[in-house]
TrEMBL record, chain A:
CDD domains given in the database record: TM_PBP2
UniProt family annotation: Belongs to the binding-protein-dependent transport system permease family.
Keywords, in A-Z order: Cell membrane, Membrane, Transmembrane, Transmembrane helix, Transport
PANTHER family linked: INNER MEMBRANE ABC TRANSPORTER PERMEASE PROTEIN YCJP, MALTOSE TRANSPORT SYSTEM PERMEASE-RELATED
Protein name (record): Carbohydrate ABC transporter permease
Stretches that traverse the bilayer: 35-55, 99-120, 132-154, 174-195, 216-238, 278-297
Organism: Halohasta litorea
Keyword Transport: yes
InterPro entries the UniProt entry points to: BP-dep_ABC_trans_perm, MetI-like, MetI-like_sf
Localization, UniProt: Cell membrane
TrEMBL record, chain B:
Transmembrane annotation, as ranges: 28-50, 105-131, 143-164, 192-214, 295-320
Protein name: Carbohydrate ABC transporter permease
Keywords carried by this UniProt record: Cell membrane, Membrane, Transmembrane, Transmembrane helix, Transport
Gene Ontology cellular component annotations, sorted alphabetically: plasma membrane
InterPro entries: MetI-like, MetI-like_sf
Secretion signal span: none
Membrane topology, as annotated: Multi-pass membrane protein
Natural source organism: Halohasta litorea
From TrEMBL, chain C:
Function: Part of the ABC transporter complex XacGHIJK involved in the uptake of xylose and arabinose. Responsible for energy coupling to the transport system.
ABC transporter domain mapped to chain residues: 4-234
Predominant location: membrane
Stored PROSITE patterns: ABC_TRANSPORTER_1, ABC_TRANSPORTER_2
Membrane-related topology note: Peripheral membrane protein
Subunit annotation: The complex is composed of two ATP-binding proteins (XacJ and XacK), two transmembrane proteins (XacH and XacI) and a solute-binding protein (XacG).
Name the UniProt record assigns to this protein: ABC-type D-xylose/L-arabinose transporter
Enzyme category, top tier: translocase
Catalysed reaction, written as an equation: L-arabinose(out) + ATP + H2O = L-arabinose(in) + ADP + phosphate + H(+); D-xylose(out) + ATP + H2O = D-xylose(in) + ADP + phosphate + H(+)
Recorded family membership: Belongs to the ABC transporter superfamily. Carbohydrate uptake transporter-1 (CUT1) (TC 3.A.1.1) family.
Molecular-function GO term, any one: ATP binding
EC number: 7.5.2.13
Length: 312, 330, 393
């Protein structure tokens, strides 16, 4: 993976016209791959970024003129929507709520899924396959299938095994608990795959050196599976941050009731008018924390590259 | 002489607990580690599903306080599958005239899942390759590729709604003049189906890409050196090293994407196409449950049928996964 | 330092029995090698000592302390693994000091010990490298440093040299011996390579099918193998085995081509007993140069010769038209001989050979237990019978 890594042109002296390039390409097929690579990269960047660019243009448009149509440039120019979103509703509080949900759920899911992924990926025991299947089957069901009993439970309308939990509706618990269950299967499967690939010798070595079995998991297995753990973490965090169904229905609509960003964004849609420019601006602001997270976490994914000789 | 020993008995309960865990058999230790996960799943997943399942065995009573009538066994399932359930939410426009509605939803769901998963896998592979290479500015390319996954579904829906909105967006005009779309694509079932599929591919390819990337980076780099010395072309390296070694991760990614795609609901509503225009199975559940009828038993029935349909699709993957794990390091 | 004692160790995996009933008593400061073919249970044994595997029954004691129920970390041992098992995410310093850090040693103490360990294995100046930046031999030395830095009661080494190339293996072998001399710590070493077992150990424990076959110093295992398995396993190339029967006047091969004269009663054998005669290739001698107490000549033909440098292997067959069956070295009618490099022996030639009687081994065919080592007539005993065969000489 690391062989043809210099940016195109820097390794060769030939920077001449097209024919020169073709000549050298024939002699050096790596150049062709590099050109193909650049083309594909630009294509992907364009397709992923263009809709977001356009969203930004809507945000910068004059709110009253959006319905006239927005092209490559904003229609009218009114950057004040980035301020107005906070004036109309406490959008930062909605974001805070979503960040709390996402953080709590991710920490909880990674912890529980690490234990389960270790068991599934590295230990032999009876009933392993049926149990893994049991985890998977949960994700077959539309979220609505869980909703009514949980809604009743969190509103203290029914009890589970004779226990009535505290009222969780419109608290972080009311969102974090069901979402943990919803995103647990994916995290367990990802971590099972990655933990299962760490050679046994490393775990044995750690235990001889002085860790407990559990200690070996946290000191050796998890650090060595950093790409997998970071991936599971990013996927869970982002999915919860943007989750639509439970976070919307298990909370009230106001920020004080732990409503997530979805409620915040929808609130710009009044009975009479839909403020697309505000919704666009709010979305861009809402995406920023996630983008920051991706920047930080992807470094963690890269660190998997330096760990090198993982396999025997 | 033993410089590194601790007393084996300790008053500290945490240490005693850890010491106790050390002496468990492998099997007992495995069960112990699985307790937290299954405890959560039991309360939050298995138990609600059990209640929902019981609900599906009763008759709907739309006017009673409990909303549920007499025990009817599997009658609800028979009615739905034979299209005799009158309480299911109906589409605004019946696309195919005679086709029973449940089967129509099934068709939409399967078509959506197959098309989106195929494209997301291919694009995800390409994106993972772009993210894996080393070059200046890779960090920002990675962020750009992952960014769509970070867009809330509400916004994703709004974005594509606006893009194809005849007055705001600029895509609907040209596509219309090329004869691909009708006058108002979001109210036409075929056009709206294409839009929601494209929107889903746009957002979710990054999910595949991330998992594929993580799989790629667990591959020992020296394998590529060996292959290059042996004269393998990039394609051969992909075919003989990358693909087989990331197959477990890839199958896990495809498995969960398929499950997700077959439960598609959010983007249909958020893009403004609506469940009436693009009726998926999840749409049917939500509309029947929360719509005007609030037919809980019928909704529960469709939810379980959806799960069974997904289960059938997933068993194909499980067989593949079982097959692929035979070549793994274990 | 510590003794290691295994008492009645039994280990089952489901229905498979990995270790039947193992007793092993390792002295303080001893270098003991567990040797045997792959799957014989030697790795399970060392994992049992380490605590990575819990025995189904039996007890493990290290330094008079019953450690059967203790986790690996509390057993006062260090281990070097076949796959080296360095932590790829830690540099050399962190790899070596991992165990000390876990035990919350002072920073200065850790530095001092790591420095000294690195010196012992000649790794100075490499402490900040990552394992991926090192060669196989360097990594193995890091693994050894990681083991010695903790000053454990005993070292366990599971095929530590198996993944190294031949030259490096010989080099590391001497280094390990040097470290053992220096530290004088008990070492339990696992290998399937008997050359390592022979050269390094104070005693070797030969294990097969989960059973201890012999536990003795290397030369004793070589010269006086306790049974057929040990005889065949120790020594390279392997001992020749000839099936036969005890007669009134000694041994007679089933295939008829070899007779050995001795007094059956002197070696505790009964007439008519089915036995296996063992002779090492270097104790098969060309009749011309044979001296001392040897058997009658055997007429053979050379099939293949393999000059190895300091010796030549000669594959002999008693039937001129036959060729050596390499798949079954103990097939009747074939013998492997090892002669000095000066010998001038061509292929496909008739050759008369004799066996050195003082180095013959006799095993019971049923129990495979050794009956006698050396069949030479003790001095002073009169060879009363004058057989026609001996008259030929």
């Amino acid at each position: 993976m690391s062989h043809d890594t210099q940016p195109a042109g820097s390794s060769d002296e030939e920077q001449g016209p097209f024919t020169n390039w073709v000549d050298s390409a024939i002699k050096n097929p790596k150049k062709v791959y590099r050109a193909m690579f650049a083309t594909v990269a630009i294509f992907f960047l364009f397709t992923t970024l263009f809709p977001l660019y356009w969203l930004t243009m809507i945000a910068f448009s004059d709110g009253s003129r959006v319905s006239e149509g927005v092209g490559l440039l904003p229609t009218g120019f009114d950057p004040s929507s980035f301020i107005e979103i906070f004036q109309q509703v406490p959008f930062h509080l909605y974001m805070f709520n979503s960040l709390v949900f996402a953080t709590l759920t991710t920490v909880f899911v990674l912890l529980v899924a690490s234990l389960a992924g270790y068991a599934f990926g590295r230990l032999q025991f009876r009933g392993k396959r049926p149990m893994m299947l049991g985890v998977l089957v949960i994700s077959f069901f539309p979220p609505a299938a869980f909703f009514i009993p949980l809604f009743q439970l969190f509103n203290q309308q029914i009890s589970f095994l004779g226990i009535t939990p505290p009222e969780l509706y419109s608290t972080p618990g009311g969102v974090v608990i069901p979402l943990s269950a919803v995103f647990l299967p994916l995290a367990i499967f990802i971590l099972t795959t990655f933990y299962g690939q760490i050679p046994d010798g490393l775990e044995d070595a750690a235990r001889i050196e002085g860790t407990t079995r559990l200690g070996a998991l946290f000191r050796v297995i998890i650090p060595l599976s950093a790409p997998g753990v970071a991936t599971a973490g990013i996927l869970t965090f982002i999915a919860v941050y943007n989750e639509f169904f439970f976070s919307f229905l298990m909370t009230g609509a106001a920020a004080q009731d732990w409503a997530p960003i979805v409620d915040g964004i929808i609130s710009y849609r009044s009975q009479f008018q839909v403020r697309y420019d505000l919704m666009a601006a709010a979305s861009i602001v809402a995406v920023l924390p996630v983008a920051t997270l991706v920047v930080i976490a992807q470094e963690k994914i890269v660190s998997g590259l330096t760990s090198g000789a993982l396999k025997e | 002489m033993a410089t590194d020993q601790q007393p084996s008995r300790s008053r500290n309960p945490i240490k005693r607990g850890l010491a106790w865990m050390e002496n468990l058999s492998e099997e007992a230790y495995a069960y112990l580690l699985l307790i937290p996960a299954f405890l959560v799943l039991a309360v939050i997943a298995f138990w609600p599903l059990w209640r929902t399942f019981k609900l599906s065995l009763f008759e709907d009573d739309l006017f009673g306080a409990a909303k549920v009538g007499d025990f009817v066994g599997l009658q609800n399932y028979i009615d739905v599958l034979t299209n005799q359930n009158s309480l299911l939410a109906r589409p605004l426009i019946d696309l195919t005239g005679g086709t029973p509605f449940f089967r129509q939803a099934l068709l939409v769901t399967i078509a959506f899942a197959v098309i989106s998963v195929v494209f997301e896998t291919l694009i995800g592979f390409g994106q993972a390759y772009i993210m894996a290479k080393e070059y200046r500015g890779r960090r920002w390319v990675r962020v750009a590729i992952i960014l769509p996954w970070a867009i809330p579904i509400v916004i994703q829906g709004m974005l594509f709604y606006l893009l194809f909105n005849p007055s705001v967006g600029f895509l609907s005009g040209p596509l219309q003049s090329m004869g691909i779309f009708g006058a108002n694509p979001l109210t036409d079932s075929t056009d709206a189906f294409i839009i929601t599929t494209v929107a889903d591919i746009w957002k979710t390819s990054a999910f595949m890409a991330l998992l594929i990337l993580a799989g790629m980076q667990s591959i020992d780099k020296s394998l590529y050196d060996v292959a290059e010395v042996a004269g393998a072309s990039p394609w051969q390296r992909f075919r003989h090293i990358t693909l087989p070694l990331i197959l477990p991760a890839l199958l896990v990614a495809m498995l969960f994407r398929t499950i997700d795609a077959m439960r598609v609901y959010g983007i249909i509503e958020a893009s403004g196409a609506g469940c009436g225009t693009v009726p998926s199975l999840s749409c049917l559940v939500v509309d029947t449950m929360f719509g005007s009828t609030q037919a809980y038993a019928s909704a529960a029935t469709v939810a379980f049928i959806t799960a069974i349909v997904i289960g059938i699709a997933i068993s194909v993957y499980l067989l593949a996964l079982k097959f692929s794990s035979r070549g793994s390091y274990q | 330092m510590a003794t290691i004692e295994l008492e009645h160790i039994r280990k089952e995996y489901g229905n498979d029995i990995a270790i039947e009933d193992l007793n092993l008593d390792i002295q303080d400061g001893e270098f003991v090698t567990l040797v045997g073919p792959s799957g014989c249970g030697k790795s399970t044994t060392i994992e049992t000592i380490a605590g990575l595997t819990k025995p189904t029954s039996g007890t493990v004691s290290i330094g008079d302390r019953d450690v059967t129920k203790l986790p690996p970390k509390d057993r006062g041992i260090a281990m070097v693994f076949q796959n080296i098992a360095l932590f790829p995410h830690k540099d050399v310093y962190d790899n070596i000091s991992f165990g000390l850090q876990l035990r919350k040693f002072e920073k200065e103490e850790i530095d001092k010990r790591v420095e000294k360990a690195a010196e012992t294995v000649q790794l100075n100046g490499m402490l900040d490298r990552m394992p991926s930046e090192m060669s196989g031999g360097q990594r193995q030395r890091v693994a050894i440093a990681r083991a010695i830095v903790r000053q454990p009661d005993a070292f366990l080494m599971d095929e530590p040299l198996a993944n190294l190339d031949a030259e490096l293996r010989v080099h590391m072998r001497t280094q390990l011996q040097r470290i053992h001399d220096e530290l004088d710590t008990t070492i339990v070493y696992v290998t399937h390579d008997q050359a390592q077992a022979m050269t390094m150990s104070d005693r070797i424990a030969v294990i097969n099918d989960g059973d201890l076959q012999q536990f003795a110093p290397p030369l004793e295992c070589y010269n006086e193998p306790a049974n057929l398995f040990v005889a065949g396993f120790i020594g390279s190339p392997a001992m020749n085995f000839i099936e036969g029967e005890i007669t009134d006047d000694g041994f007679e091969a089933d295939a008829g081509y070899i007779d050995v004269e001795f007094d059956p009663s002197a070696v505790d054998a009964t007439v008519g007993q089915q036995v296996v005669l063992g002779v090492r290739p270097e104790h098969v001698l060309p009749t011309e140069t044979a001296t001392g107490d040897v058997t009658d000549s055997i007429d053979t033909y050379t099939d293949v010769t393999e000059p190895m440098g300091k010796e030549i292997f000669v594959y002999l067959v008693t039937d001129q038209s036959a060729t050596v069956d390499m798949e079954d070295p103990d097939a009747a009618g074939q013998l492997l001989m090892s002669v000095g490099p000066a010998a001038d022996i061509g292929e496909d030639q008739p050759l008369s050979v004799a066996l050195d009687k003082s180095n013959l081994h006799l095993f019971d065919a049923d129990s495979e237990v050794a009956i006698a080592h050396g069949l030479a007539e003790p001095a002073g005993v009169d060879a009363t019978e004058d057989t026609p065969a001996s008259a030929d000489d």
